[in-house]
Design brief:
Elements: H1 2-18, E1 23-40, E2 47-63, E3 66-84, E4 90-108, E5 113-130, E6 138-157, E7 162-179, H2 186-190, E8 196-201, E9 205-217, E10 222-236, E11 239-258
Length: about 270
Amino acid sequence: MKRLKHILLLIILCLTSVCAKGIEHENIFRIHFGGIWQQDQYLSPLLYDGLSAGIGNEWWQAFSRHENWSHVGKVYLTGGYMRNTKRSNAIHFYDIRGGWGTDHAWKWPNIGIQLLVGPYLNAEIQLKSINNNVNKPYSFDIAIDAMAQVGIAYVFKAAHSSYRLRYIIHANVIGIDFMPDYWQSYYELSEGVKGNIRCSGMWNHRTLQHELTLDMQLPHSTWRFGIEHQYIEYGATHLWFSKEHVCAIVGICWHYETKHNKAYAL
């Protein structure tokens, strides 16, 4: 028991030494709205387009001992409504997207430039329901991707405010996705006829996400305005899916600092 106490004390001391000083967090809450163009050949051979709206949150935090290394977490919820080119059918969709990544920052304070490079793990699931399709009323897009993350930021100041213009792009490298069987209907899923979970990459599943944002730090608040573009294309010879989503971003940013308690002897 005494040895266990010593091990626990050593672990606590190590953690507190790594996180001895307060860590500053940057949190951004946003709303987004825009347009979407999507083709789901499982539901229909036609192209659908419509409107989307949603909310999201992202947070940035530096590693305590490595100020040039930071990590970021993101989660977004989106919903919308699409109609086909003939306006004869409609699809409702709900999308959940989230991820975590880390990056190294090269900084040139004299000119206000920062370059960010690192990996990012992204997961997304989209649920779709079509109005007029008896055998196939639902469809699911599910994918998990290891992505490359690259960004560049320019920071500049005015008399009573400061600004950050930042562009970040994510591209998938390798991952897994779900492909339904073309002849599979929703009731067959419940009876054990499953689709295919496969390895994915640029050869069969292309994902590109990028955004351009402007953060404006005013005397009493910090606001974000920007635009985001997402493009996804994947499938097989007999079944193909694609999505293009463009949205405007309005958000509010704030910083806060966490302070860690001191370690006490057990």
